[in-house]
Amino acid sequence: RKFCRDRYGDQASVFENAWQRVIAVADAYDYGGCYASSVIPFSPWARRTLMHDTRDAELDDATATFKILSKADLASAFARRDAIDIARQLTDRLIAREQRRLEKAFDAWRAGASAMDLERHLARYGRLGALMADLLAQHTDYSLYDTFRRLDAVHPVLNPEFGQVLIDNASCYYCRSHQYELTQHWYLPVMLDRVQAMRKRLAAGDRTPFSYGSAFADELHAKLLKTPLDSMRPTMPRTAETLRKTLRALAETAGNGR
Questions:
Q1: d(CA 251, CA 68)
Q2: Does residue 60 sit in helix, strand or coil?
Q3: What kind and span of H or E run contains 46?
Q4: pLDDT for residue 26
Q5: If DSSP codes are grouped into helix, strand and coil, which group holds residue 113?
Q6: pTM of the model
Q7: What is the spatial distance between Cα 216 and Cα 190, in angstroms, rounded to a whole number?
Q8: How far apart are CA 213 and CA 249, in angstroms?
């Protein structure tokens, strides 16, 4: 409480409420990497940690948390940064949960269940991935391009391939996290490719086992390493209204997930 009072002043109660909710979510999960570890698995251990965790009840209040944040005074960059910090943790766990539910729904469809549940999870899975990218685009802390600019301002970067070095380092299995460029240009395309492939299976009535391998992800990663970093930079306006709109969309999408 003292932390929030000192940090947020008049908005202390709003942010304290939000922090308490997200800390409860964070405490409920064993760390196994960010949601990218379920989207692009890098080891059997990481996949087991994320895919076999059934403590999803802690996420049932995610909609309320997003709504609390959307009603906060987001006029200052400081408040927006902390709101994004809280929201990204919730969105991360929601995507990991949706990956688990998606796989279970596909297996159920293969066993003869209706496709309605699977279609619902496919839509939500892609939507959450896109909203995570929108969220991270709205602050410099989550952009490799902005990191590059800050470094270059301190001392001109001499390595002409340093942008690709940042991408390569950030995309290794140990460092994958909430970087906009990877979220928008790697994790999300892999998620959408999975959605498209499953929908093709549904249309064709193909109930053979689905592969969650990394062939497409590996191909896309190789292309990223040849792509100029500045061409992947975030361009979304970093305003209070833009963030409020993103938080409201997250509240709606999370609310449809019960």
A1: 10
A2: coil
A3: helix 44-51
A4: 74
A5: coil
A6: 0.92
A7: 7
A8: 30
